[in-house]
Amino acid sequence: MTAGLADRSFVGAHLADLEISRAWLVDPVSGREGPGEIVVTDGVLEAVTWLEGVEADGVDASGIIVAPGFLDLHAHFREPGNEDAETVATGLAAAAHGGFTAVCIMPNTTPALDEPSVLARIRDATAASGSPVTLLAHGAVSVGRAGEQLAALGELADAGVVGFSDDGAPIRSASIFRNALAYAGMLGLPIVDHPEDATLTQGAEANEGLIATVLGLRGWPGAAEAGAVARDLAILAEVVGDVPGARLHLTHLSTAASLELVRRAKAAGLPVTCDVTPHHLALTDEWIAGSRRWSWEALEDNGAARDPWRDGAITARPFDPSLRVNPPLRSAVDAAACLGALADGTADAIATDHAPHAEVDKAVEFGLAANGISGIEAALGVVLAAVGAGRLPLATAIAALTTGPARVLGDRAPGGPGPRGLVEGRPADLVVFDRSASWRVDADTLISRGKSSPLFGRELSGCVLLTVAGGRIAYQAPAEA
């Protein structure tokens, strides 16, 4: 067989029939990667063959790659309530374009996902979309996400949520957080906290430091995140003594200090996990000033952050509102810490924090722009940039997009607690992408309704050719003319 895709599949409800030969397979379950072939028949992964010797000659990780479908722990699809920014249907289509076969959405919808009826509306929209991508949901910790009264966690658990969070906002009350940890622990589900001390971030616009100072932006201290992480971990340490099932997941960590706290907590045996985002891995606060170099390019040989003005790195206009995110883009030192945390296992997953907004909410003055990047379609390309620069092994990156997030979800991961690997005899759940091909990020190439990205105009490697979810075609790249 020759390398390529058998043209016997169609996007939509059809089961996949597929043969891929002489590709590079990455299986994070077995820990194996190398030349191989796969066969999918009637949606089932019928055969996985690893090639050796002469048959493997000329096949490497620079071309066609086959991996398990990605699982995003953190995305915002906006429906119900803000469908002009994203709908469930457009969000699922964008996820498939990015190689994701399962997505966990956050509860900051309107109304908030604080009762089963809201989850039912989202599930109806999922069914109507026709997408085979699995949509999972986190329920709200508090009623209306107001932080004043616990939501009906038991009813939400019975309805099928995979965790509880007030994201878009932190769980401000330590008492509410403590009670939620205990209650969710008895239900066997994690609390997913957005760690932020809001008393330190009110009115803040950008990471506190040189860039914010030079640009005249109000600083957002890293201590606001690290302090909240320390609080959460201290409460977890007490609660887990009474409720052994208590689990904490800290989402979109962005500072070296926060990650070091998690590293120590894991070493002490606390049941805590965390994720980092592609934009906190690869972008830095100097992008707000107009730099467009990757985070690893902004480091001195001694590990310190470089001055973009002295380096002549400023090549674009400053104050691009697409760069306003929460938590803010940090320094190159913090970005390196995020990459290091993935490499040593402190960070369990890469989560996109896909946060689409309507143009009216982003095309404004930087300090007034809504927080968020439409990132689910570009996530793979950004991560592959780090892989290509030698900052992250390919196998580690794939694991952080597949088995890592599945372990965080545990029993409620898609397909149950079993592995997200290239497993024969199961419905195919995989992504096929070409590292040798690049694509240009712009409004026309994004399927998401959210068209706000600092990567517009940039070429990213890793074109997704095919996404198969549960044995069905979720996305197939258009045939070249």
Name the descriptors.
481 residues; disordered N terminus; single chain; 18 strands; 30% helix; seven-stranded mixed sheet; TIM Barrel; four-stranded parallel sheet; alpha/beta
Give the structure's gist in a few sentences.
With 481 residues, the chain is α/β, with parallel strands linked by helices. The chain contains 16 helices and 18 strands. Strand 17 and strand 18 form a beta hairpin.
Overall pLDDT: 95
- What is the fold-level CATH name, i.e. the topology? TIM Barrel
Our count of helices gives 16
Computed CA radius of gyration, to the nearest angstrom: 21 Å
Count all strands and give the number: 18
For this structure, what is the CATH homologous superfamily?
Metal-dependent hydrolases
Strand content: 15-25%
Give the uncertain stretches in residue-range form.
1-10
CATH architecture descriptor: Alpha-Beta Barrel
Distance between the termini: 24 Å
Q: Please state the overall shape, judged from the principal axes of the Cα atoms.
A: globular
| CATH level-1 class | Alpha Beta
Number of domains: 1
| Structural class label | alpha/beta
Helix content estimate: 25-40%
The major beta sheet can be summarized as: 7 strands, mixed
Major beta sheet, strand line-up: 3-2-1-4-16-17-18
